[in-house]
Structure formats: structure tokens, C-alpha cells
Write a structure and sequence with these properties.
Keywords: Cell cycle, Cell division, Chromatin regulator, Cytoplasm, DNA damage, DNA repair, Mitosis, Nucleus, Ubl conjugation pathway. It is found in: Cytoplasm; Nucleus. InterPro entries: BABAM1, vWFA_dom_sf. It is built from eight helices and eight strands; from the N terminus they run H-H-E-E-E-H-E-E-H-H-E-H-E-H-E-H. With about 375 residues, it is α/β, with parallel strands linked by helices. The strands form two sheets. It has a six-stranded mixed sheet, sandwiched between helices. Strand 6, helix 6 and strand 7 form a beta-alpha-beta unit. Helix 3 runs parallel beside helix 8. The longest helix has 19 residues. The C terminus is likely disordered.
């Protein structure tokens, strides 16, 4: 009778000898079944580390050449998943190569927007427009110079013929008055003629025909002097400027604008305003616009004279809210019409003249673009 070989007792789990994980067998085929078979980890609740993660001390235990102890015979699926990167690290250590470290991919940096353009420097405190930008009625006082310079046949008309500045100014004033009347029928207009003295010719009216009836009966005269203070004194006597409790928030019932068309070359203006005139010029509801006609290119030796006059008119505007234009009498008449078209804007709503642009195409030089009517 054959003697049976001694075996394990009933109920005792048969231990299975597995090949140790070495460099020759990093991931044996017979060990892969440990993830599903009875040889796997009996604790399914053990969290599995992410792929590529490494537990502290795992590399030394898994790469040791010593025979595995009884506590390492049970192989888990987690260990099987982390063997490959650990073996690669061991090989690099033996050969002498540095262990590769994961390099984070550089995310492309978003394209930085160009720095914002420097905002334009605002006008100084004394140039700030204090009144609300409302479209209130205007009282426009048109002052027309009747000196002999207005009768010179120098301006080139639309048909190419030469004409005088007075004829062009009369047509220009009529177009201005009728256009302003179409914009707002509440606007009123008055006419003052300037010889040696200023004469209030037509009172305020909202009917353009009434003012134009007095416009074409005028003729030029030989004038020796020009008294700007006398002109402003006449205007001051004919108007009453609004007085508002709060200038910044309460809109005025109306504003007064004086439009002077001037064509004399008598040197720099001599002006010593009285307190009443100076108070009128400083009022936020009074505006003094000027269109200065000069000989321009023909005054090569006396160019500084008309520039001094033009500068004198500009210096009258301490608020920075008035418009000033200079036009050469030797150029085309359309330049005069363009200046009058720019004056159609409401004085409370138009920008500072240095900020105004009349170009329809971006990048064009506003000085070279004609704003035709």
C-alpha cells in the first residue's frame, strides 16, 4: 500500500509560490491574474494610487534582489501597475543615468493686449466746460466787418471767377442763418455792422428772411480804426445773460454767441475791457467766435502782422470754449464756407477746437480734409 504524501490540513490555504519580481521578470504573465484570481489582494477597499504615482519606500522593496518573504507572496494589482516605472528608475540608477522627472508642459501664455493708449490730456481747470451740454436756444449776434479789405477781388468762387470777400460773406451768412433755423426754430439772430464804430443794425429775430433783408444792402467803407471794446460794449447793452443758481446741473434757458467776420490788417489789437465786458467774456453762457480773413501769401514781408491780430483774438478766450478760424483771401472761397459749416455746432455741445476732427476716414489729417456743406 502506497503511503500518501503528507499534505496540508483541511481548510488550510495552499500557498502558491510566485516568481519574484526582478529585473528579468518585471511583469510576469502568471502574475497578471492576481488582479482577478484568488491570488490578488483580499481587501478590495484598498484605494489604488494613480498611474505613475510612487509610494515612499516602494522602489527599494520592489527592486531588492533578496528572496521574497512570506509576507510578499500575495501580490496586489496595485503593485503590478506601478512596477514598470519603478523598474525603469532602478535601471537608470544602476547605469548611472538620472531619473527622468516629469516635466510639466508649458501652457502657451495668452497674448497680452497692447497697453492702452495714453488718454489725451484734458484741458486745465479754467478750460473746463461747466454748463450742461444741452441743446438750448441760441441768440447769435453776427458782426460783419465793412472795411475796404472786404471789397478786394481775390477770392476764387465756385465757377473759377474772382469775387470779393463781402459778397461771399453775405451768402455764407445767409446759408448759416437758414441752416441754424432748420436745426432749431427757437434760435434768434441779430446783425451788427462794424465800421469805425459798431452799429446794431437788426435786432434779435427768429425769421431768417428778416435778417437777410438787411444783409444785401451793405457796402464797404474806408475805416481807420477798430475799437473792439466799443463792439463788445454795444453787445453788452443789448443782451442779458442767464444767471443760474447751479451752473453745472441746471441748463440755461439760452446762450449768447457772437460771430465776428473780420478782415483788417492794422496790427495787434489794443483792448482794455471794462469790468462789465470782462464779466461778459467770462460768463459760461457767452461765446465769441471769430473768422479772420487776411491776405496771406501776398503779405510775405508783413506776415507777422496778421498773425499777431489772430493771436490777439485767440487770447480773448480765457475759457477755451470759443472757435477761431483764419482764411486767406488769396485762396478758394470754399474755405470760408467750410469754416462757417464748422460753426453750425451748438457751443455747449461742440468739443474744444483743439479736439475737433472733421475727417470721415480714420488716419486722415483733419487739416487736409474739407468739411463741405
Amino acid at each position: 500500500m502506497e503511503t500518501p504524501q503528507p499534505g496540508p490540513a483541511d481548510g488550510e490555504e495552499r500557498s502558491v509560490e510566485l516568481r519574484p519580481r526582478t529585473r528579468s521578470n518585471p511583469e510576469g504573465a502568471e502574475d497578471r491574474r492576481s488582479s482577478t484570481g484568488s491570488l490578488g489582494n483580499s481587501n478590495p477597499s484598498t484605494p489604488q494610487p494613480a498611474v505613475g504615482s510612487r509610494v515612499e519606500g516602494e522602489g527599494e522593496a520592489s527592486t531588492s534582489d533578496s528572496p521574497p518573504s512570506s509576507t510578499t507572496t500575495t501580490v496586489s494589482a496595485t503593485t503590478a501597475q506601478t512596477v514598470a516605472p519603478i523598474v525603469a528608475a532602478t535601471v537608470n540608477a544602476i547605469v548611472g543615468l538620472p531619473t527622468p522627472t516629469p516635466v510639466a508642459k508649458d501652457r502657451p501664455k495668452p497674448t497680452q493686449a497692447p497697453p492702452p493708449l495714453t488718454p489725451p490730456i484734458p484741458p486745465t481747470a479754467e478750460f473746463q466746460l461747466r454748463a450742461p451740454r444741452v441743446n438750448c436756444p441760441e441768440k447769435v449776434i453776427i458782426c460783419l466787418d465793412l472795411s475796404e479789405e472786404m471789397s478786394s477781388q481775390k477770392l476764387e468762387s465756385f465757377n473759377g471767377s474772382k469775387t470779393n470777400a463781402l459778397n461771399i460773406s453775405q451768402k455764407m451768412i445767409e446759408m448759416f442763418v437758414r441752416t441754424k433755423h432748420k436745426i432749431d426754430k427757437r434760435h434768434e439772430f441779430a446783425l451788427v455792422v462794424v465800421n469805425d464804430d459798431a452799429l446794431w443794425l437788426s435786432g434779435f429775430t427768429s425769421d431768417p428772411r428778416e435778417l437777410c433783408s438787411c444783409l444785401y444792402d451793405l457796402d464797404t467803407n474806408v475805416c481807420e480804426t477798430f475799437n473792439l471794446e466799443d463792439l463788445l460794449s454795444v453787445i453788452r447793452q443789448k443782451i442779458d445773460l442767464p444767471l443760474m443758481d447751479n451752473i453745472q446741473t441746471i441748463p440755461p434757458p439760452f446762450v449768447v454767441r457772437t460771430l465776428l467776420i473780420y478782415s483788417r490788417h492794422a496790427g495787434q489789437l489794443q483792448f482794455s475791457p471794462s469790468d462789465a465786458v470782462n464779466s461778459m467774456l467770462l460768463s459760461p453762457y457767452f461765446f465769441f467766435d471769430v473768422v479772420y480773413l487776411h491776405n496771406g501769401a501776398e503779405e510775405q514781408g508783413d506776415e507777422a502782422s496778421w498773425r499777431d491780430i489772430y493771436t490777439s483774438f485767440c487770447n480773448l478766450d480765457s475759457k477755451g470754449t470759443c472757435y477761431h478760424f483764419e482764411v486767406s483771401l488769396c485762396g478758394p472761397a470754399i474755405e470760408l464756407h467750410n469754416c462757417m459749416a464748422k460753426l453750425l455746432s451748438h457751443p455747449l455741445q461742440r468739443p474744444f477746437q483743439s479736439h475737433a476732427s472733421y475727417s470721415l476716414i480714420e488716419g486722415d489729417d483733419p487739416q487736409d480734409v474739407e468739411a463741405t456743406v
